[in-house]
Amino acid sequence: MAFTEKLPEWHAEGIEPPDSKKQAGWDVEDRPPAGWWNWLLNRTFKAIEELRNKAADKQYVDEAVAGVKVPDATLTQKGITQLSSATDSTSEAMAATPKAVKTVNDVAAAAQAKANAAETPSGAQAKANTAETNAKSYADQNFYNKTKIDAVNLVRNGTALFGLQDWVVQGGSWSYSENDANVGGYFYPSAAVAAGTHIFIESQPIYVFTSTNYYLGCTFHTNGGLTSDLVRIELVNASSGVVLGSIRADDNKWWHRKTVVVNTGNVDTVKIRLVATGPLTNAATVIRGFSQVTLSIASADVYHNQGDWRSLFQSVANGKTNIASAISGKGVPASGSDTFATLAAKIGQISTGSRMEYSFRQNSIKTSGEYILATLPPRSIYSFQTNYDNSEEAIAYSYVGDLVADGTRAECAVSLKDSKGVYRDVLKAASYKPGGTGGVSRRFNRLEISNGYLTPGKLEFRIENENNSLSGWFALGTNIDDTQILMFKYDLINPHENCWVTFGLKGVSYRV
Length: 512
Hints:
Blueprint: H1 19-24, H2 34-66, E1 82-84, E2 94-96, H3 98-116, H4 121-142, H5 146-149, E3 167-169, E4 174-180, E5 184-189, E6 198-203, E7 206-207, E8 213-221, E9 231-237, E10 243-248, E11 256-263, E12 269-277, E13 289-296, H6 309-329, H7 340-348, E14 355-365, E15 369-376, E16 380-385, E17 394-400, E18 409-417, E19 423-432, E20 438-451, E21 459-465, E22 474-477, E23 484-493, E24 499-511
Parallel strand pairs: 1-2
Antiparallel strand pairs: 3-6, 4-5, 6-12, 7-12, 8-11, 8-13, 9-10, 9-12, 14-24, 15-23, 16-20, 16-24, 17-20, 17-24, 18-19, 18-23, 20-21, 21-22
């Protein structure tokens, strides 16, 4: 039957979107370029046209084949053949089925097996020995070789040298230190934990051999008054969370290392948990540390076979301190305790003159912190202006959902901080429960700050908010003669998955 529907012709070839956009798809409020739409419509038209053409070819072939008559097959002529599963027929007009062939093959195989059984015992033993040798050699080369992997630590980032990378916070608030003189880096709970509750961070899944003994090890720090079972490490089934083995830290003790042997049973994938149980009333100030976390199938504690980690750490720490000093010398405060990611961001904030361009956006941040924008020495004036019509280009946003507990709060502010650590907010977005859930945004097109430039000792600002004209000058303080750090300051109290901040700038600033 002929096609009746008119083809949706579209001959503008357009421009093919990048693979990344094909994978991600359209986002809310996206405005796809015309070239991308033309490409999609043109490709759709060509695909339908090709299907219609090939369908027409198939109809022609079907009609041509319908008129062909195939004769019966003979010993001298090709044609249609009847199948037969008989194994005792003498017909030359039928073809054998796979069943008939298998029947004959089974009889032949049985006969061959009977003949092979007549081999001498010495010959059979020689073949068995050769097979065993070959099997062992292949296994050693291609599968598990115990002598090669016994001393390997299967835990990635077991000393927090890379922050919380490869670990997932499953409850409570956790942080890390990278500069302890005794163990290098370590993980620790950074907020109070209520009595009768526990929090933990969890490693990425680790694949293990079943029914094998593994050495689980950790170096703990509980000095500071702990006298009950508040700190431990667990090896758990990655699928069910069932604990396979654990180590309890000693009470009220400086850095000390402990290990335990755990058999995996029928489990082939595990995770490691670092657990703290309440009450911990001052967890953020008294060290409850976990470091040098290891898992191996060695015959002893694998940590002692991993080389001089302290030397490596000290080398890295010294390098970070030197980098931080150089950054601070360029007017952007930095510390050797900053993470590498933070140092990289601060390098990008170093001013090479009086003009600076911003183009960044930090989405859905769920921790507290600071993002430095500029340094304003005494008797300077700073001006920022976005060159874009989109009101999202200069924004501070906070969000607290209905699912969080009372007392949860998210704040994101454009703030100034002096050398004494005093913060002065220029604008702030704040969401909280009870009373203020949902999203709150503060957008602006222009911001100017005078640090004693217009009036000596007076810190003041003026701002052009979204849809408003430039305001008059607002005083933040007088008798101030101090360097000010301009930043996005964001705080999350009682953090939760349904609580975050977003901020960003896109525009140009000048400082005099």
